[in-house]
Amino acid sequence: MSATPALTGPIAANTVQKWLRAWYGTGMPDAVDLDIVRQMLPSTPYGKGVREIKAPAVLDVDSCEGMLVRNPKDAAEWGIFYNGNANPERRRFTIAHELGHFILHRGRQQRFNCDNESVHTGIDTIRAIEREADEFASNLLMPGDLLRDWISHQRIDLHVLGAIAKRFQVSFEALCIRFIKFTPQRGILVHWDNGYVKYEWRSSSAVKTRARIRRNGDPQEPLPGTLAGDAGVDQEWDGTEMSAAVWCTEEAPHMKLREFKHSYGARDRVLTLLLLESAEPHAWDGSWQDGDSLDALDWQLPATQVWCSKNPTTSRRSADAAGPRCEDQTI
């Protein structure tokens, strides 16, 4: 008999999605109602020993993005807090992130304090516990089957991805990261902060073919001849075609890519999306066959029960952004 797989963020999120779809029957909204999830969980196997998760409340601490806390006077009661100054999409992702901690980690500690540094950054100091909660939130808010349906059989550009982000009520950046993790295309997503690379995510097929941006220093700066390096271009949502070798050292000159650019309001934060032509994996490179299939910079990232019950009182919430990063505290 095979062993039961360890509970991970994606497995937990997919299970919650199945419970939600069984409860709705038909007509489930594209944007997951997190209030229903919060009220549902104590009645499921994921909420064993918990009577209630209190409704999320505003936390007036700018340095803290969110918090999950067990009531010290009542072990069967937990509460979620979020930064009231965050935009709706970021608040939404923060709440989903804390629900991930509730399912995956509450047996380890009684309090989770989450700062406002995104766990999507790929920074090597991010702990596994944070990434797991983040993966739960991403999979819950942006289900893979819906995303697959919406990106299949159409030419991808930032208009398409932006429309999907609105349907899921998540941030544009969070959707782009999810897309890169999920797409079968060769893709690279780079976040520039004040002119330097903050993170680089590569799709599994980009890893297999060793497609990565050429290095020009530490810290990395935008490459000459690219939209990312052109201060005169703020936005390019339709994509500009160019030789893939402009960006990627190991690409043949005849290979093409499309570069997309999104600049945020202050223009000190820029997203670059590169979509490359298909290519075969390098025969001499078998490293992609071991472990995870995607990475950030040079680091490797790392039987369902149906639940149904009466309709809990709903309070639809809007919207997510790059998720919070957490520090554990014990009380």
Give a verbal description of the structure.
The chain is of the alpha+beta class. The chain folds into two domains: 9-142, Arc Repressor Mutant, subunit A; 156-300, no CATH class. It is 27% helix and 22% strand. The chain is built from eight helices and 13 strands. It has helices spanning 9-24, 34-40, 88-105, 128-141, 144-151, 158-168, 172-182, 204-208; strands at residues 52-53, 57-59, 64-70, 77-83, 111-115, 186-193, 196-202, 235-243, 256-263, 269-276, 295-296, 299-300, 325-329. A seven-stranded antiparallel β-sheet has the order 8-9-10-6-7-11-12. Strands 1, 2, 3, 4, 5 and 13 form a six-stranded mixed β-sheet that branches. Strand 11 (295-296) and strand 12 (299-300) form a beta hairpin. Helix 1 runs parallel beside helix 4 (128-141), helix 3 (88-105) packs across helix 4 (128-141) and helix 6 crosses helix 7. The longest helix is centred in the N-terminal third of the chain and has 18 residues, at 88-105. It is globular, with a radius of gyration of 20 Å. It starts with 8 loop residues before the first helix and ends with a strand.
Please sum up the structure shown.
This protein has 331 residues and is an alpha+beta fold. The chain has helices spanning 9-24, 34-40, 88-105, 128-141, 144-151, 158-168, 172-182, 204-208; strands at 52-53, 57-59, 64-70, 77-83, 111-115, 186-193, 196-202, 235-243, 256-263, 269-276, 295-296, 299-300, 325-329. The chain folds into 2 domains: 9-142, Arc Repressor Mutant, subunit A (Orthogonal Bundle); 156-300, no CATH class.
Main traits of this protein?
Arc Repressor Mutant, subunit A, 2 domains, 331 residues, 7-stranded antiparallel beta sheet, globular, alpha+beta, 27% helix, 22% strand, single chain, 6-stranded mixed beta sheet
